[in-house]
Input
Amino acid sequence: MKELARIASAVQASSTMAIDALAKQMKADGIDVIGFGAGEPDFNTPDHIKAAAEKAIADNNTRYTPASGTVELKEAICKRMKEDCGLNYKPAQVVVTSGAKHCVYLALRALVDPGDEVILPAPFWVSYLELIKMVGAKPVVVTAGESAGFKMTAEQLAAAVTPNTKALIMNNPGNPTGMVYSRGELEAIAKVCVEKDIFVISDEIYYGLMYDGARAVSFASLGGEVKERTIVINGVSKSYAMTGWRIGYLLAGERIAKVMGNFVSHSTGSPCTISQAASVAALNGPQDCVEKMRRSFEERRNYIVERMNRIDGVSCIKPEGAFYVMMNMEKLIGKTIHGELIQTSDDFCTALLKHGLVATVPGSGFGAPNFVRWSYSTSMDNIKEGMDRLEAFLKG
Ligand SMILES: Cc1ncc(COP(=O)(O)O)c(C=O)c1O
Output
């Protein structure tokens, strides 16, 4: 038989999903594992959103919609983005997709050709690296360390640009770090993008989950020249606890939106009609549910950060958004814990799962080899127990 396609064969399985699946399997086998691997809110989708979906079914609102989404949903997206982020987009500049993950793929499809370079600040969300490879482009990873708050500087960006650079992927607030770029930092990065003529894919899916009273700054809000070269990615998954509904959306200039709309019409077709109706209710309905979940995440963040920094051998900086914290485990490299030699964060996570019954995600898949991602999207009781277990595990 002939070989499979080179591009497809080179795609790696998602490390976040792998650990989550393993933890779920251990739980199914009756082992008392606490999972900190999840990339989704642990809350249920709010009732009024579920009711809108039930009504859509009862009303036989069950057929195809326009490939890039219903006018009603696009209008709701424009309204919400204006209210929350000060962005002015028309429905013709919106493309609704089956989840924000697909948005990243579509945005790359619209902007890059095989051989183009895409700059990716590390630590990065695992899927970006694979998606860049999936469109035949070349990822250029720019590492931002913990001392820089895991944030790439404008100088680092400028140094990474070559004549082949086509686009930059920004993720703010970020997964896996939870860090948030300030307006000034974003402006400096945007200036480089305009000067060097590069597109920006700005994934802002965690914009609703910000702490300490801060509000996220959308990359596209930084001026006309910046907006026209930016594709904003957002969705309902994280803010409204709707990961399983599979609705994401893109905002872009009309020309780019049209290209992405054409692409989606031949690949996935329209996103789920019922989920679109539910998303209209999410975006147009009361927003206090978002605030309630956000407050809960903030309380959990405060607890986990404080506890982690009191445990010998590990530490973390305080994330400002999303629901992840990056634990620094550099000091444990070369140590033996419960008979296991820890040489990498992968070794650490495997040992912690095996001996401490706590599931976390190694930083290796995120371009952060000496770190471990803890998702605090789990109950306060689980977080407390998880920290107790980490402490006991490290005592060996
Ligand atoms: C940064 C980032 N973008 C996009 C997504 C995907 O969102 P969706 O569930 O809408 O596909 C995730 C999910 O983990 C994410 O962390």
In short: Residues 288-308 form the longest helix (21 residues). The longest strand covers residues 165-171.
